[in-house]
Write a structure and sequence with these properties.
With 316 residues, the chain is α+β, with helices and mostly antiparallel strands. The protein is 58% helix and 16% strand.
Length: 316
Amino acid sequence: MKCKALFLALGACLFLSGCESKDIGAVKKSTLGDTSFTTGQAFDNRKICASTKWSTTEDRGRTIVEYRCDLAGAEDFNKAQLAQGISNVHKISEQYKSKLQAEVDAANQILATQLPSNSGEPPGAAQEDDATKTLRGLIAVQAWLQSDNVDALATSQPPEINADLGRLLDHYLDVKAAGGDPSILVKTILIERAENIQVVEAQIQKEQQVIRDQAKATVDGAAAQSAGIDEQAASAAAKMNADFSANHVYELFQWVVPASGDPELMYVGNEMVSPDGTVIDRKFQSVDEPVNAIIKNDMTAYPDYFKQLHPWLRDS
């Protein structure tokens, strides 16, 4: 009869899960921080847990008590975050590639075009790089030098004018303004002008080559840049998958229960489990944040948890 009663009690214990090990009981009876709650009261009555589980393991003669909370709403939240994240990665990648293609198209246009040497806008001028600005100024000077009218030259000097020619023209204007005869300066000015035409033409050819070299470098480097964009996008997508592929996220607390004395909290972290069985463990930098969250018990779903506590997690 006693034996039958023993088996009945054991069956009831297993069915109701009401008979816990003394080590789990010791953890549950311990106080939680400065509150009046016991650990068991606080941990077993959390709004955010879809389910909870207590278990024990042995580790080199030590008893480890583990508490596991299956965080509610983690799968739906992660699916939405992953979809949005992958979409953003793709969008940004395409934007960079579109910009790169526009640069390549402009560079190919430069390479296929005879760059102007006496008028008009140089191809690629909208980018306003240093070489393009210089070429623009030289083309303006070249156009200005086409006139052999000294009065016209003196009264419409561009900023990029040669300093020596500029001084001669200023002196010409000063003499004329003073009522003198500046005709003696005209021959010198026209000689200086002719020399400037040759110098400017050589400078234009030099800047044209600089622009062509830049265009060729853009075209030659486009493939490597495009591959680099793809690589960065793949890396970002992989990180998104690592962060948000889990369909279950568990919050774990582990205590060491010594033979004598109070249980000691040894680990607090998350375990993220993906459908393919991949498990990623992350540890809280400090136990204060997750413990305070349990005391407050104001989180009802994983989005709240992620916002408040995820920043405190680090890879184990």
